[in-house]
Design brief:
It is a single chain. The protein is mostly helical. Helices cover about 75% and strands about 0% of the residues. The chain has one domain: Four Helix Bundle (Hemerythrin (Met), subunit A) (Up-down Bundle).
Length: about 170
């Protein structure tokens, strides 16, 4: 009888361990390689734009840059939509995830908000402001650096979050 009880307990323990190992809690949207690849390409294009504009931009030469601005902004807006389209799971563990994100300087997940989508939206808004300023009056070297720094912060947030999802 003792041997049967031990085997029963062992079998029950293995079954329980298997069930617990199979249970995973999804705390964030699923990883999408296309989004991370898109952010990486947009980052390269944005930094190339900032490098070419480092000495400032004259209003008179805006027409030569208009298509570049529009293509970059359009790509970012499309990436934002893609990132927002992924469902965010609703779990009690989201508090733990938010604590982890905040410790790393990333925005918390709130009401189905995807941090990378928010960051991508802010990158797009920053580039729209730069484009509009460039068109209206040109952009000084100091302004270019300020726009670049703001975009770099948001790019870092988007890339970090999407890279985290890859795990």
């Amino acid at each position: 009888m003792k041997i049967v009880l031990r085997r029963w307990n062992l079998a029950l323990g293995l079954l329980l361990a298997t069930l617990l190992a199979a249970c995973t809690t999804q705390l964030a949207p699923l990883y999408d390689k296309a989004i991370l690849d898109g952010i990486t390409v947009a980052n390269r294009e944005a930094m190339t734009l900032f490098a070419s504009a480092a000495n400032g931009l004259a209003k008179e030469s805006y027409a030569a840059r208009a298509d570049h601005y529009n293509q970059l902004i359009g790509n970012l807006d499309a990436l934002e939509i893609q990132a927002k389209a992924r469902p965010v799971p609703k779990t009690k563990n989201i508090v733990a995830v938010n604590t982890w994100l905040e410790k790393r300087g990333l925005p918390a997940v709130v009401d189905d908000e995807v941090p990378s989508a928010t960051a991508i939206g802010k990158i797009s808004a920053t580039l729209k402001k730069m484009r509009d300023t460039d068109h209206k009056q040109g952009v000084s070297a100091t302004e270019v650096q300020a726009f670049r720094n703001q975009v770099a912060i948001y790019m870092d947030q988007a890339i970090t979050y999407e890279s985290f999802l890859e795990r």
